[in-house]
Amino acid sequence: MIPRGIGLWLPSALLLSRVPGCFPLRGPSSVTGTVGESLSVTCQYEERFKMNKKYWCRGSHVLLCKDIVKTGGSEEARNGRVSIRDDPDNLTFTVTLESLTLEDAGTYMCGVDIPFTNHPLGIDEFFKVELSVVPVTGSSLWSITTVPETIRSSLVHAQPSVTTEDTIPAPRARPWSLLGSLYLCILVFLELPVFLCMLCAVLWVNRPQRCCG
């Protein structure tokens, strides 16, 4: 393998010769993921690369591509949110990116490490993958925001309702006012006939008398 950062003297024609369909390493040219979710990219290689190290790097040029994760003595490796798993039986290796962010979008490469012992120039086999990351959709936001809204709604309904009747007591009738009204009614009904009788007596006594003869 040519160390990263050197080998810029390689003829550009040699790099341009790696056109689609001529790669011994194949996979998707572009993938799209959603913020907060996971994304997997599967790369397929030829059987002669079963024992080679596989890697996932970020960059648009193989000589300047920065390794993110790379298989070593085992078939699986991890670096933070990125993991790589080699499956020699199926001649594939899979790169998984977890908890995607908008900053993860960019150009990446699936690569197979080719040492100088296997190739006269030690040029790695690779292909580019354009990764796009989109924000959370409206439906996903709805599913996230409705949960606390439902909880708040249930809490509101669970609380006892407070009304004016509960906070302001209704005025109560006083006993003395009821007795006074009853006494007044009795007094009116008893004294009115007496008053009328007395009035009739006075009128009778003071009536004009006619003289005899």
Written description of the protein model:
With 213 residues, this protein is of the alpha+beta class. The protein is built from four helices and ten strands. The longest helix is centred in the last third of the chain and has 31 residues, at 175-205. The radius of gyration is 49 Å and the shape is rod-shaped. The protein starts with 11 loop residues before the first helix and ends in an 8-residue tail after the last helix. Residues 2-21 and 141-147 have low confidence and may be disordered.
Low-confidence stretches: 2-21, 141-147
Radius of gyration from the alpha-carbon trace, in angstroms: 49 Å
Percent strand equals 25-35%
Q: Helical segment tally? A: 4
- Strand numbers in spatial order across the main sheet: 1-3-8-7-6
CATH architecture of the domain at 23-135: Sandwich
CATH fold label of the domain at 23-135: Immunoglobulin-like
Structural class: alpha+beta
